[in-house]
Amino acid sequence: MDMEVTALDGDVTHVRLVGRLDVAGAEQIGVRFTAAVASQARSALVDMAGVEFVASMGLRLLISSAKSLQSRGATLVLYAPQPLVQEVLEHSAVDQIIPVAADQAAALERLAG
Amino acid sequence: MTALPPPGDPAAAPALSLTLPRTIGSLEAARQAVVQLLAAHGVGARAVYSIELVLEELLMNQIMHAEDARADIGLRAAVKADSVVLSVEDDGAPFDPLQRPAAPAPASLTAADIGGLGLGLVRKVSQQLDYQRRDGRNVLTATIARA
Lengths: 113, 147
Known about the structure:
Chain A contains four helices and five strands.
């Protein structure tokens, strides 16, 4: 699992994830992801286009980070999930509690709205 | 792990049976063995994803929760015409994980539990999911559609 963090204008953290967000992947990036995202009071966008797989352990990481951000008054938005990953987000109803957008522009709009 | 027939071999048996140590490292080893079996029998991408998901959830459940199980985890996978059947077994005390009520969909991010989503996902992607106590072992079997 690879992770790339950049800063966007407007004080937004951008994270690009590539690979499998399975048990091993979540463990591999967990500390860095939490440090980059959950420990800041800045909203974050997560580019999911390169994530080929996610199951409950990966969802745990996303949910706990989203909760952390929310408690600081910020928001986590996921965008561009692959179709099968999107289905998992729907099956688990995670898409009801974490905003999921089609692309980066739409994700930024979700932050503004 | 037991030996497998070469991939793409038309005479390859559409099934595998493995004994895995009760450690995190077994997840990837099991996944690779199962994916190799699925590829050899032309199982499509959507079914492969569902099977990988069920495999990860059932094995993690074993690794995290079957504390009193002494022996390794048993895994069987069989490719059928319309479905793939996956079963995971252990020799621990009788325990049916399906008795736990399904977690309700969270009303909000604040109210959401971080965990407990695994079983719900397995139910969503499986046609059938059942538990049996057989020969002193807990056996959990999931059937996933190939279509």
